[in-house]
Amino acid sequence: QVQLVESGGGLVQPGGSLRLSCSASELAVNMFTMAWFRQAPGEEREFVAVILRTSTRSFYSDSVKGRFTISRDNGKNTVDLQMDSLKSEDTAVYYCAARASGMKGSSPGDYKYWGQGTQVTVSS
User: Fold this and answer.
1) By three-state DSSP, how is residue 88 classified?
2) Which pLDDT belongs to residue 55?
3) Which of 65, 70, 77, 81 is most solvent-facing, going by the fewest CB within 10 Å?
4) Residue 90 phi, psi dihedral angles, 5° rounding
5) Judging by DSSP bridges, how do beta strands 118-122 and 10-12 pair with one another?
6) Are 26 and 32 contacting, i.e. CB atoms less than 8 angstroms apart?
């Protein structure tokens, strides 16, 4: 049974950094397109970043471009999201997702597998 487990969330001050990690079981992260989404209270789940299967190509939402970096560690079978220069509007539950397709996919419906989410709160 495929499982995605996120970790690394927490409380951070504006301008600070956090590193989220998504650990996968029964799924090889290098063979899947892996993405991060986030959902703030009362908002729809939105795309944050994606790294394509068997590739290092990555794409970001305009709101995080230049501040967030997605990466994959095939040896650990994890996908990380390095978040720098955090802002209060980055506060949300962050979800890891996976799809078999090699296409980017920026809608939640494009992804079959999901983690349970990890809370990120940016506040002074």
Assistant:
1) helix
2) 86
3) 65
4) -85, -5
5) parallel
6) no
